[in-house]
Amino acid sequence: YISEIDMTDDQKEILNIAIRLLNLREHSQHELRRKLLKRKQEPDDIEFILDELTREGLQSDARFVEQYIHFRTEKGYGPRRLKMELKEMNS
Asked: Per-residue pLDDT tens for 53-73?
């Protein structure tokens, strides 16, 4: 379990921020990384936490894409538009 891992205070802070963001909605790793970097966190610590979140199943790019497609499809967006939007997200 992720809380049992020996972490620095900075890593614990990053973990708490990431979990708060994930509680609001699914995020891709790319989104979480971008948001955490904006908060001037250490990139190596961010990567460590993102790896742990993924390993524990708390963050999933596949789950993010499924939810994203579901919500955008309900709003009437078609496959080409969705493919373009998802591609832009990873740029």
From this structure: 999 999 999 999 999 999 999
Q: For residue range 6-59, what is the model confidence (pLDDT) as tens digits?
A: 899 999 999 999 999 999 999 999 999 999 999 988 999 999 999 999 999 999
The identity of residue 47, as a single letter, is: E
- Cα dihedral 55/57/59/61 (nearest 10): 90
DSSP-assigned letters across all residues of 32-87: HHHHHHHTT--HHHHHHHHHHHHHTTS--HHHHHHHHHHHHHHTT--HHHHHHHHH
Query: Is residue 8 classed as helix, strand or coil in its secondary structure?
Result: coil
Nearest to residue 33, comparing CAs of 51, 58, 6? Answer: 51
